[in-house]
Amino acid sequence: MKVLLINPWGINNDQFYTAGFIHGMNNFVSLSFASNYYYGGEEPNGEIYRVFFKNTEKMPHSMKRKILRGMEYIRGWSKIIKIAQTEKFDVIHIHWLLMYKVDLRYVPVLKRYCKKMILTAHNVIPHIDGEKSVDDLRKLYSCFDTILLHGETLKAEFGHYFPELSNKLRVQYHGEYFGQSTDCCPDNDHRVKELFEERKIYEKSFIIFGNHFYNKGTDRVVRIWLEDKRFDNTQLILVGRINKNYSELMSLVSDVEKRENIFLLDCFVEDDLLNFLIKKADAVVIPYRHASMSGVLHTAASFEKTVICTNTGAMGEYLEDGVDSIVCENTDDSLLQGMIIANEMEKRKLADMGKRFHESIRKNYSWGNITKKLYEEVYCFNMEEL
Hints:
Elements: E1 2-7, H1 14-25, E2 30-36, E3 48-52, H2 63-87, E4 89-94, H3 100-110, E5 114-120, H4 134-141, E6 146-149, H5 154-161, E7 169-171, H6 190-198, E8 204-209, H7 218-227, E9 234-239, H8 247-250, H9 253-258, E10 262-265, H10 271-280, E11 283-286, H11 296-302, E12 306-310, E13 325-328, H12 332-344, H13 347-364, H14 367-379
Parallel strand pairs: 1-2, 1-4, 2-3, 4-5, 5-6, 6-7, 8-9, 8-11, 9-10, 11-12, 12-13
Helix pairs in contact: 1-14, 2-3, 3-4, 11-13
């Protein structure tokens, strides 16, 4: 079976998901991959086509970058159409659609050149301003034979927005991160190392990392640190760019900068430094207001860190409250109670929960099992009828 996997993102943490998928699927099909130019993980057993974002991926964020990136995205899709015309793949499987107006032009054309077309909908709607994309997503989702979601609970959310397309749904769980290094060398960033050395040493540290936006819910945790004296002796580490439209968090930055027990890095952080900060933490906080799934869960598992997580999207399906995690209802009060429980817990118990979380992800979400099930039940299912 000839399969083309398409992932125009496929770098940073998404690379570890993609690498795991490729590693598993190489055992079952002849796999080619249309990728981001800078993808550096496991390679397919077939061809790799580096067609996306060669010139703009590493440019500073600006309007010029945005325009040029759109042009590169269009060129990438044009190249993929030509490849598909020649190779005649049995299955085309897309992992991310990044610019829906452009995707609407190319995805229907691509469908002509395969027997089955599959989409992994990592999020039912995007994390940021997702409601604005519903009409475009409805048109895009209708192009696919099968839409994969990362949990059973997401079927209800999908059905809320796209009830007429619910017959296309299958669940493919989010596999463990493959090849993610947990190594670090804090000496590589002397500024941060020195800043930590100048600060008070706290009994516990909790971390939130990745881009910060409204649905990420970072402001909910920051308010706890600013308002509740029970956390005065606990450090909160915040790492990643803050979306400038995230007024709920932006309004707190000046107060955050005055607090000794909140460490903020409002910027992109290289893996080496991020690994150092995650290792320093006792737990990873995932306070989402809305999400389908988050790769932060799997990063936490790689580092053997327990998570304090709101029960949003499918994330609760990967966790066992009180055993390998602290799962909170999606309310400010429940999140506060979860943070209190973690803050009062012995460091050793938090560490033990993190080890159990790591073992659970390794056992239950291996790519060998996930891709075998996907191949047998989705790639091959009714192929002769298409």
